[in-house]
Amino acid sequence: MKFSMKFSMKFILHLISSSYVLGSILSSKVGVEDLITSVSGYEGSQGCVDELSRVKNCILTATKENIIVSCNNYNTNTCQSFYKNPMNLLSSCSSNNFVNALVNSSVNLIIRDLKIKCQKDETGNECPLSEIELNIEESSNTDILNAINNSCKSKICRENTLEFLEYTSEINGKASNLLQSSITQITGAGTISEESLNSVLQDQSNNNNEIKSYIDILKSNNCSYSFREINFNN
Ligand SMILES: *[C@@H]1O[C@H](CO)[C@@H](O)[C@H](O)[C@H]1NC(C)=O
Ligand SMILES: *[C@@H]1O[C@H](CO)[C@@H](O)[C@H](O)[C@H]1NC(C)=O
Ligand SMILES: *[C@@H]1O[C@H](CO)[C@@H](O)[C@H](O)[C@H]1NC(C)=O
Question: Cβ(74)–Cβ(118) under 8 Å?
Fold first, then answer.
């Protein structure tokens, strides 16, 4: 029991730590399986785990290997109606504040990530952020910046990328508060040091500044200009 609690704590910290928040940009390694693992460490979470398993196909993180399957699922009526209000089908996950916040933000983030990957641009091509996520193992800041700039060339890519980044930024702030307020509950016997918590929070704050700079680019007049110009030339 002790072991599995520790195990899941590590996952939870990982999930809401910066690497997860940016994970989706930097080719995501965390998906629904990790979320289920994290949640299953909580008492009384079986209902939530069962519900997550039932909608698993709709929140399969899209990778280079499974993109066709993930996006086929993404486009089904069942998944599209799940996306409209995901927590409706995950009501057992609301019994605990921490699990609720974790599931809600993770699921919504995965959905926005799928949207970038599964909705192609106006000419049927992959959106720039999706392209680096799927093809580059460890994207550099320059890769990401280029992809953000290139997203300006398509209305669809720009909007979906903006939606993803704005959501990421929103839950990033919430995750910091949640971490701080539930840390006694999570740590139990004090497995997580204040030092490591502070370093997670510091990473999040750094990443949030980076994310905000990407949001600024996508919202700037230059960005829509480049989009208008492309369309005008067509
Ligand atoms: C899920 O999170 C969104 C914001 O990210 C919030 O508006 C919504 O109320 C949350 N739903 C539940 C059930 O907590
Ligand atoms: C992105 O676009 C901005 C504004 O046009 C420009 O200043 C910046 O150098 C570009 N960055 C890259 C990596 O292309
Ligand atoms: C928009 O482009 C101009 C000229 O290329 C540049 O000076 C300015 O910094 C850009 N603005 C933003 C917000 O990127």
Answer: yes
Distance CA 164, CA 180 (A): 24
Any atom of ligand 3 within 6 Å of the Cβ of 213: no
Whole-angstrom Cα distance, residue 192 to residue 152?
A: 42
Q: Rounded to a whole number, what is the distance in angstroms from the first to the last CA of the chain?
A: 62
Whole-number Cα distances in Å, 95 to 92, 117, 229:
6, 32, 50
Q: Which of 89, 99, 104, 112 to mutate to test the pocket of ligand 1 (most atoms within 8 A of CB)?
A: 104
Q: What is the DSSP letter of 124?
A: S
DSSP letter string, 43-65: TT-HHHHHHHHHTGGGGPPP-TT
The first and second tokens of residue 116, run together, are 């970038």
Cβ of 95 below 6 Å from ligand 1:
no
**Torsion angle of alpha carbons 61, 70, 143, 222, nearest 10°?**
-110
DSSP-derived letter for residue 42 is S
- Judge if pTM exceeds 0.70: yes
175 alpha carbon to ligand 1 midpoint, in Å? 13
Q: What tens digit of pLDDT does each residue of 211-220 get? A: 889 999 999 9
